[in-house]
Amino acid sequence: MKPTKISVIVPVYGIEKYLPKCIESILDQSFKDFELILVDDGSPDKCPIICDQYAKLDSRIVVVHKKNGGLLSARKAGLEVAKGAYIANVDGDDWVDKYYLDTLYKLAITNNADLTVTGHFREFNGKIETIKPSNPGVYNENQIKSSIIPEAIFNGEFCEHGMSTYVWNKLFKKELLNQVLFDVHNDILMGEDAAITYSYLALCKSLVISKIPLYYYRQRHDSIVKSIEDPNMEYYRLGLLMNHLKVKLSDVLDENLLNTQLNYYLYSQLLVRSGGLIQINDTPEYFNPFTDVSIGSKIVVYSSGSFGQHILSTNLKTNYFKIVKWVDVDFHDLKIGNASVQPISSVNEEDFDYLIIATINPSTHRLITSELLLMGIHDDHIAHFKTEEKIISQLIKNIGFDKNFLFQQNIEQLN
């Protein structure tokens, strides 16, 4: 048989509502020399049936049925059977442009690239936003090590990546991905794409970055985990991610720079997953990351995305802040506790002490701040994060992470 140029791996779990659109968008590609690997990760709905039905209709489809093991285990199962020289990844609730594979492949072949990166579309509640990399171009091995990797995880602004973590807007060489993916621990459930992308980047001798958006990422309300139920288990998993990155990047980054990158990345993950209030070990003590905001402050939360939902859910348990309103420019029907999302025009400055913009992306924070200023909200009422590295590194130590970013508490005690 003629070798397949690209293997497209799609992990499948609990997405029967979205899966057909995903599969059909891949089968409709202008580029024809590919195989589609659908990995049923023990999905409890009709997804296994949908996968098998499509496989009967198109010989390019390979279906893998396996016991549920999580996203990473599904990606690994797909890679194990992949025959393509290149690997593309698509999440089963997303979809792709007709020229997704064609463009990725031409970019890779033309530039002899080990890694190909493109832009994407973000679909949220029916609205589509175009997101493009800020550093397009072709990079050789020296440039990757001198300018790309040093800013990949943290580009100097809290907390913005120099390269997106996602695996789905990229094309990988199978021979290199084999050296990376199987080393990633299956317990890494938050940031698993980062574990793959940044480890892979350390092996690359050539890279091409394009602004062309080809992938439609669907951000779903029902896919967001609301709050940390077990902080110690969360810290353990985040520790695995950070330790993995430290090991894989230690040969290509100065130790101090690498520690800075990981300090800020871990802090950002702790912020989002904890809903802003970071618990110190098993004590009732919380680290409040918002400058000037204190217990009992009257708060407006801006953003109904992941971070915003975490803040609402965490505050239900802690009652740390008095949340008086929850707003978003992407107004839609969503409720947590007694709070429901309201339009931005409903905010009156006299009703609150501080407004928390629930994003860790500085560009997004600045954009939202400028819009709020136009609405009459003064800058001194907009909360800002504590971002001094000395404070962050001490916090990470206080929580219980060691110098290698592993969480010190014995995980056996958590089971």
Automatic annotation (TrEMBL):
Q: Which residues form the Glycosyltransferase 2-like domain?
A: 7-162
A Pfam family of this chain: Glycos_transf_2
Note the coiled coil stretches, chain numbering: none
Q: Which domain of life is it from?
A: Bacteria
Q: Which keywords has UniProt assigned to this entry?
A: Glycosyltransferase, Transferase
Q: Does the keyword Glycosyltransferase apply?
A: yes
- Keyword set includes Transmembrane: no
What name appears for this protein in its UniProt entry?
Glycosyltransferase family 2 protein
Source organism per entry reads Winogradskyella vincentii
